[in-house]
Design a protein that fits this description.
Elements: E1 4-8, E2 11-15, E3 19-26, E4 29-36, H1 39-43, H2 50-73, H3 83-112, H4 116-138, H5 142-162, H6 169-172, H7 183-200, H8 206-215, H9 217-232, H10 238-254, H11 260-274
Antiparallel strand pairs: 1-2, 2-3, 3-4
Helix pairs in contact: 2-9, 3-4, 3-8, 4-7, 5-11, 7-9, 7-10
Length: 276
């Protein structure tokens, strides 16, 4: 059974074909809640290209809800964060992401050149540089480092499960924090494919360029998903290895070695998501 997940605040989300499990650390215990995998997600899981768009939307919705849930679980009862405050924070984060990774590279590129080929290469390279720089900067935060440690724990537990080893912290520690199906590799693929697609779909108008970069996100995500899915099953192929290198290298920033307690949370989520 193929599984995937993401790190949240002091916790892990693991999704299988049938279930979604969210495990969070609460002082000296692990709290886990489960829900059925979206029927829409399952329905489109075998339809190439369309499934990438569905997976992207499902991941954003599921991940956002899990993030809100994990944030609330870490607050003391008298300090509970309101749904409005969390929703506002996430909305502002999306706006900042669009401004930082789409609008800013466009503005800088326009100031430097208007030549089609050079513009698209520069725009794409700037997005990659800004993305890597952003990750490096936020990784210095103690809170973000904790999330990156849980990210590593998630990958190690998934590796252990896929290797059909007993899910124990000792066994998980034998595996790498890097995984070929990671969302970080997916994002890097999105950045690369966007350079190619925006070179084909061209407009001289700055505003239209900006809208194109937002409207075409589902198509880029769909292509990236199919490439990632294809490459994850062919890791021994020399060409696939070469293509995968940048995404795997970035994971060295977005994942850190977890401690035993963090691995226990990842194990709890994997066990619950894969149980009958």
């Amino acid at each position: 059974m193929e599984i995937g997940g993401q790190a949240i605040i002091e916790g892990i989300l693991i999704k299988s074909k049938e279930k979604v499990a969210i495990s969070v650390r609460k002082k000296n215990k692990i709290k886990t809640k489960t829900q059925k995998t979206s029927s829409i997600s399952k329905k489109f899981s075998k339809i190439p290209f369309l499934r990438g768009i569905v997976v992207l939307l499902d991941t954003i919705i599921l991940g956002t809800r899990a993030l809100i849930y994990s944030a609330k679980e870490q607050e003391e009862e008298q300090e509970k964060i309101s749904n409005f405050a969390l929703t506002l924070t996430i909305t502002i984060s999306f706006i900042i992401a669009i401004a930082l990774f789409i609008f800013l590279p466009l503005v800088i590129s326009k100031l430097i050149t208007e030549e089609r080929f050079t513009f698209n290469i520069l725009d794409g390279v700037l997005r990659i540089v800004i993305f890597i720089g952003y990750i490096i900067i936020i990784s210095k935060s103690k809170e973000v480092r904790r999330v990156f440690e849980y990210h590593g724990a998630e990958h190690m537990a998934v590796h252990c499960y896929e290797s059909k080893k007993e899910l124990t912290p000792k066994n998980c520690k034998k595996f790498s924090t890097i995984h070929p199906r990671c969302g970080t590799s997916f994002i890097f693929l999105v950045l690369i494919i966007s350079i190619i697609l925006f070179s084909i779909v061209w407009s001289e108008n700055f505003f239209i360029k900006f809208l194109q970069r937002i409207i075409l996100i589902p198509i880029i995500a769909s292509l990236s998903y199919e490439i990632l899915k294809f490459s994850s099953k062919r890791q021994k192929n020399p060409l696939i290895k070469l293509i995968s290198i940048p995404g795997l290298l970035i994971q060295k920033i977005t994942t850190k070695r977890p401690d035993t307690k963090q691995l226990e949370v990842a194990i709890a989520a994997v066990k619950e998501a894969t149980s009958p």
